[in-house]
Amino acid sequence: MNAARTETTFSDSAVKGVRLYQMRTIIDSTRGNLTVGEFGGELPFVPRRFFLTYQIPERTTRGEHAHLKCEQFLVCVRGSCAVSVDDGLHRDEFILDRPMVGVYVPPMVWAAEHQHSWDSTLMVFASDPYDPADYISDYAEFTRLVRRADAPTTPA
Amino acid sequence: MNAARTETTFSDSAVKGVRLYQMRTIIDSTRGNLTVGEFGGELPFVPRRFFLTYQIPERTTRGEHAHLKCEQFLVCVRGSCAVSVDDGLHRDEFILDRPMVGVYVPPMVWAAEHQHSWDSTLMVFASDPYDPADYISDYAEFTRLVRRADAPTTPA
Fold first, then answer.
1. Positive or negative CA dihedral for B21, A130, B47, B56?
2. How far apart are CA A96 and CA A124, in angstroms?
3. How many Cβ atoms are within 10 Å of A119's Cβ, its own excluded?
4. Are residues B62 and A38, on separate chains, in Cβ contact within 8 Å?
5. Residues of chain A whose C-beta is under 8 A from some C-beta in B?
6. Is A116 considered catalytic here?
7. Is 0.90 topped by the overall pTM?
8. What's the CA gap between B140 and B142, in Å, rounded?
9. CA–CA dist A130, B38 (Å, integer)
10. Which domains, ranges and CATH numbers included, belong to chain B?
């Protein structure tokens, strides 16, 4: 017996809706390793888009925006990077350094990727096609929108 | 100007329905590189599943099956590997060694992955959830099904 199998699990972050996933993996010294995820089942949405970022210069930060509607799922498929997330109230940070780990980032969470290793390749699944109107790229605007969403409604 | 941009293009293979894609890529020496694909638009289907294979021992061949219905799209996100495809009539082979290259494999095409570099990581998108009944894992059975599908219909 050369194979071990783990099932998909996740843990919640202090940041609203963010989850750290350990994806279903078969470790097999004879055949090689396999990590798998089914979209819209064990993973939270069916992607309409993916992108890969790679050959990121040292000390470059990518991301630094939130989305109004788009959901994202990040997997570092080569090397390592850090992902920081912020819902305007709490912050958290994850080191992604293996293919079976993924971070789910819901809408209205500010995210940034940094500390890329020289060989880092990050794969991102997105729930929606590209839409520049869905981006919040100004942090002050982000916190203003978060405060407005969290404000108690007052009678007219 | 440190950035160059290419759009998504593909070329047809001699093997029925197989296509080799060069995906939309921004090469940017300041910010890093980005390869992107929109599913169901520039890429041919919306995936319901993905998997990654990695740490494949030398001289190991993976795949070696066809699908009755499931479509697949293969991208080597680290290192390199070879993908061979066969529709029962023609064969073709591709070396995948960069993140912007993908191979679309339609149903009823026999595919195998081999010549994995020591650091090879292959990402596969699949159009359907896992279904063992969708696999054709016996090559003689595959060619029999291909011949039957290609046979002229005779009057009853």
1. positive
2. 12
3. 13
4. no
5. 29-41, 46-57, 60, 62, 75, 77-78, 99, 116, 121, 123, 125, 129-130
6. no
7. yes
8. 5
9. 8
10. 14-150 (2.60.120.10)
* pLDDT classification of B63: cutoffs 50, 70, 90: very high
Using a CB–CB cut-off of 8 Å, the residues of B that contact A are 29-41, 46-57, 60, 62, 75, 77-78, 99, 116, 121, 123, 125, 129-130
Mean pLDDT of A40-58: 95
Q: The dihedral of CA B128, A130, A139, A83: what is its sign?
A: positive
Q: Is the pLDDT of residue A151 over 90?
A: no
Under 8 Å CB-to-CB from B150, ≥6 apart: which residues?
Answer: B88
Instruction: Return the half-sphere exposure (C-beta side, CA atoms, 13 A cut-off) of residue B77.
Output: 31
- Write the pLDDT tens digit of every residue in A85-137: 999 999 999 999 999 999 999 999 999 999 999 999 999 999 999 999 999 99
**What is the DSSP annotation of A52-88?**
EEESPPTT--EEEEEESS--EEEEEEES-EEEEEE-S
Catalytic position from the list B65, B67, B90, B114: B65
pLDDT in tens, B89-132: 999 999 999 999 999 999 999 999 999 999 999 999 999 999 99
ipTM of the complex as predicted? 0.93
Among residues B73, B41, B78, the alpha carbon closest in space to that of B56 is found at B78
Grade residue A154 by pLDDT with cuts at 50, 70 and 90. Answer: low
Residue type at B84?
A: S
- How distant is the Cα of A76 from the closest Cα of chain B, in angstroms? 10
- The answer to whether B47 contacts A49, with C-beta atoms less than 8 Å apart, is no
pLDDT at A143: 96
